[in-house]
Amino acid sequence: MPERIRAYLNARGLPDAVIDRHLLGWTGKRISIPIPDATGKISLFKLAKDPEDESTSPKMLASPRSHAALYGWEVLEKEPDRVVICEGEFDRLVLEAQGFSAVTSTGGALTFRPEWAPFLAVIPEVLICLDNDAVGRLGSARISRLVPTAKVVTLPEEVGEGGDVTDFFVWLGKTAEDFERLLEEASELSLPPKQIPVRRPPSIESELQDRVARAKRSVRIEDVIGRYVELQVSGSTLRGACPFHNEEHPSLVVFPATQTFHCFGCGEGGDVIAFLRRKLQLSFAQALEALERFLPSDEREAA
Ligand code: ZN
Fold this sequence. Notes:
Helix content is 36%, strand content 19%.
């Protein structure tokens, strides 16, 4: 990494130790930020604009172009007592430099994915600190619905419209103690907790919902996907080659805890029914029937 780039990162709140620990690099045109997935493998880079590039080229690019990922799985792995959800890779690293465990979505304020929620819900204290603008507030409300125990941190007005964590620490010169005080003042949004909407055809009646609930209770998603894909245990998840896109390295991850799957390559994901629908090209009702064929035979009679 050229000295001027390192100096730029230092000036925006990233000391050398953080730059090196997170393997920030330089492509010759952009600053590269490797984003490890839940298993520690890096298949995604965020690419920040050269500070001297005055063109209209975007401030941040993703390579390869992909869906949003969570930046900070290794933070969650350490089972911290507290974590801050912030907006942007640099903000996450600025928080870490100040001594705060933090994670972010690589896709902006509005792309917090429901399948991440269970991993955050187990952390005693979750604080949301997105940018001080309309999108940030919308994102905070969205995350609050998915992680109902999370509290929302309000940055002081002096960060200005669109101000963020970096503005707070770097441009306003605030300290970790100042941020600690903001965290203490954080409060839960008074939103009615809303269930994550489940996409279902509108004609599906409650009888069908009961069948879905029963089948999903009795059949493990890893057993169903394991029928089609060779899965390897990887920490608390399983991993295999995605059947929905061509790939060399397995990027399909099955989450037994939430009974969901997600492909970090093509973005395909959802519950066991979503998997069967996509894999076998089935309607919702056909996928439910296919799922029920995995039930033990006595339960199948009852179904
Ligand atoms: Zn895929």
